[in-house]
Amino acid sequence: MCGIIGYYQEGGFSADVLRQALSALESMRHRGPDGAGVHLVNSQTGQSWSLRTPDSPADLIYDLDLNTYSDGQADFFLGHRRLSIFDLSSDGHQPMQDVAKNLLCFNGEVYNFLELRETLSGLGYTFSTGTDTEVILAAYRAWGPEALSRFNGMWSMLLFDAKKGQLLVASDRIGIKQLYTFKDGKCAIFASEIKAIRELRESALSLDQGNIRFFLDNGQMDFNTGTLFQEVKRFRPAHYEMGKMANFAQGQAKCHRYWDFPSTRRKFSSPAAAAEELRALLDDAIRLRMRADVPWGTTLSGGLDSSSIIYAAQALRQKAGQNDPIHTFTAIFPGKSGDESHFVRHIEKDLGLDACYTNPMDTFDFDDFEHFLQHQDQPVVHTSMYAQWGVMKMVGNSKIKVLLDGQGGDELFAGYHHHVYKYGRSLMLRGKFSAANHMIEAFCEMKGLDPKVVKGYIRNDLKLYAKLKLGYKLPGPPEASTWNAAKTLSEVLQLDITSWVMPMLLRYEDRNSMAFGIEARLPFLDYRIVELAMQIPDAYKIHAGWQKHILRQAMPELPDIIRFRKDKKGFTTPHDAWMKTYRDRFLAYAQHAAEAGIATTGQKAVDQLNAVQLFRMAGLGMWIS
Questions:
Q1: Distance (Å, whole) CA 7 – CA 387
Q2: What is the per-residue pLDDT across 497-520, written as a single tens digit (0 to 9) for each?
Q3: For the chain, first and last CA: distance in Å?
Q4: Cα angle vertex 568, ends 565, 569, to 5°?
Q5: Residues 468, 425: contact at Cβ < 8 Å?
Q6: What percent of the chain has pLDDT over 70?
Q7: 3-state class of 22 per DSSP?
Q8: Residues 6 or more apart from 454 whose CB is under 8 A from it?
Q9: Cα separation, 409 vs 139, whole angstroms
Q10: Residues forming CATH 3.60.20.10 domain(s) in the chain
Q11: The CATH number of 271-412+501-563 is which of 2.60.120.970, 3.30.200.20, 2.10.109.10, 3.40.50.620?
Q12: Integer-rounded Cα radius of gyration of the chain
């Protein structure tokens, strides 16, 4: 995993502009602390040159340095910051150029690269490194853009086809590795983080007041391709674009979708059969994601998702004769609501883990919180994201460079409360009122909720659904209406993955991990598991009040206190306590946001905002600062 940037400028770069591009690459040093690489391209002639930088490997030969570059010599800058995971030698240096003179700048991992390399070797391709990067280049020569559908992993990539004089830009199926773009007719920029684009085009950026307002009112961000800047967009997951450089600058590169959710449901002989298939895929997803030439570990919260990964990984390693303890990392809040240390310590004892703990409450520092927000590139919704930052900081201080994480389980298998409400509504829309009532009653008994209140939520949701079907549109972006108009639970889950929940969580995961040079890998988001989850009947996901029922069936070896736990609360933090302790500093940032004109509080004064409103407003103030 790394940081990448591609920068095209019509007419070519001056040496001064080239220095700005190097500064933009430097802004992502944290993503790739193990080195940097740059190639310059003249897109008109196809000629390219490697450029020596202060962080370039010393044992390689370069064509140019800043002193020997001539103004206008190149019009495309391809930059890479390396986090070494496979083949730690300089053989893995990027941008990588193949025998066809194609250039690849790649962020992420293709986990099945060994299997692909074997297939390609059978077709006559040869390899000289132990990297997935070299395999991607060979796969492109063999299959063209169709190679993307063969990759199992996470990625954003920029591949310059020297023969065609065209650029291929692609993102993985789910958007785990985000890529941001800027285009103004004469210039095109692609970067792993928005801050790199700001380094190059800060004066050309204007705030998107619609997205800012929606964030303040609803706490939602990353739900479409927009950002808080009108001119900066998030590249669409599961798509690739290809064309000449000028096509990209003008927004005319051809866009292709190479993957989508399954369009049909499957019939399973029984829930047990579906659970067995899920377990087989989860085991294989974890097997692939344990591959690394550096030490790896896992996060552990005490919940179903992270515990499933731990137990499955332990079983796989024992089969392979590996008995050393797995490294785990956990945020705890002793004595506070939501603390999960009891569950984690039970697993630690059961499996003999090498467990590490951090208490963000004890280590909270407002200056560090500001640093955390700077890395996010956009404001955050809640302090729980800072707890994850604390975990990643702890990992960064260890020898671990690869981290398996349970992100995605809730979105695939219906782990949020709103999934129960949407499923109840779906049952009622199909006339299954008795089934809906039994499901709601069981869920409320399990969670200690009032069934009358929950049924009231669902009745209101039914009314909104009916209005939307009659043509009513909710205020704000169209995604809000689309999400509320989804009929089935599976449709809601797909929208949670593509827009409403997962993109924002993936941004947090990426920024928090990469801030400390950590590669976070997400087994549940293996595309095969995603496809299976969308084909599993909704009734297998929520059953007798149990959410994620199919995953519980797939993991029989989990301790009962984990497998049948009823009180899981998610990644919690003492949010209100932090807001109270540092209220004056939050107020100052919120006031700055108001005075800068980037956000308004309506009729309320800043000091009258509640804790949720104040946190969002203050986040905007910190972000713009």
A1: 34
A2: 999 999 999 999 999 999 999 999
A3: 28
A4: 170
A5: no
A6: 98
A7: helix
A8: 420, 421, 424, 440, 443, 444
A9: 31
A10: 2-257
A11: 3.40.50.620
A12: 25
- The residues, any chain, with a CB within 8 Å of residue 413's CB and separated by 6 or more, are 533, 541, 547, 548, 549, 550, 551
The C-alpha atoms of residue 2 and residue 112 are separated, in whole angstroms, by 18
Thinking of the domain 2-257, which architecture would CATH place it in?
4-Layer Sandwich (3.60)
Estimate to the nearest angstrom the gap between the alpha carbon of 282 and the chain centroid: 19
pLDDT of residue 571: 56
**75's tokens:** 């019009």
Separation CA 30–CA 81 (nearest Å): 8
Whether the upstream peptide bond of residue 559 has omega within 30° of 0, thus cis, is no
Secondary structure, 3-state, 36-69: EEEEEECCCCCCEEEECCCCCCCCCCCCECCCCC
The angle formed by the CA atoms of residues 37, 39 and 44, to the nearest 5 degrees, is 165
Q: At 33, which amino acid appears?
A: P
Bridge-based pairing state of the strands 48-51 and 36-41: antiparallel
Nearest to 31 by CA among 350, 293, 375: 375
Phi (first) and psi of residue 74, to 5 degrees: -135, 155
Per-residue tokens: 61: 């030969």
pLDDT tens, 82-140? 999 999 999 999 999 999 999 999 999 999 999 999 999 999 999 999 999 999 999 99
Residue 607 CA to residue 614 CA, distance in Å, equals: 8
> Looking at residue 191, what is its pLDDT?
99
Residue 477's SS3 state is coil
**One-letter amino acid of 59:** D
User: Which residue intervals of the chain bear CATH 3.40.50.620?
Assistant: 271-412+501-563
Instruction: Give, in degrees to the nearest 5, the angle at Cα 531 between 380 and 316.
Output: 85
Whether 148 has a pLDDT exceeding 70, the answer reads: yes
